[in-house]
Amino acid sequence: MPDRHWWITLALSGALMVALGAFAAHGLDGRLPERLTAAFTTGVRYQAWHTLAGLALLAWRAQQPLAAQLTALRLWSAGILLFSGSLYAMALVGLYGVGLGPLGLITPLGGVLLLLGWLALAWGLWRARV
């Protein structure tokens, strides 16, 4: 199966997303300030959308492979890790009353990577005239 590692990565991202969403709903509710719970659920939401977009991209890639698809997948994966991951970490660090430190600086970088994934996909499609 072409792109097997991407399918596995996205399947694991989906499983993690469900687990973290359940944790947010049942494990964090009422234990964190609302802003940290909202940050955590924002991370889950962005992970969900980009995981679903990645799965759709892989299905499309099976029919019509383009270099831009891989670029988008790489940027989205890094973006999920940094954007959603930093939001998860900030919430969990807040749960234990530890200072947030530089975690807040990582989140925008992850967001930029997510955005660059979409722009790279658009640019690649423009150049390929698809």
Any chance you could write out the topology, listing elements then pairs?
Blueprint: H1 4-28, H2 34-63, H3 67-95, H4 103-128
Main location: membrane
Membrane topology: Multi-pass membrane protein
Organism: Halomonas litopenaei
Using only C-alpha atoms, the radius of gyration works out to: 16 Å
Helicity level: over 70%
The arrangement of helices and strands along the chain is: HHHH
* Portion in beta strands: under 5%
Number of DSSP E strands: 0
Put simply, the count of helices is 4
The SS-based structural class is mainly alpha
Largest sheet: none
Short description:
Belongs to the UPF0382 family. This protein has 130 residues and is an all-alpha fold.
Question: How would you describe this structure to a colleague?
Answer:
Belongs to the UPF0382 family. It is a multi-pass membrane protein. By secondary structure, the protein is an all-alpha fold. Helices cover 85% and strands 0% of the residues. The chain has four helices and no strands. The protein is elongated. The relative contact order is 0.14. The mean pLDDT is 91.
Features:
130 residues; mainly alpha; 4 helices; 85% helix; elongated
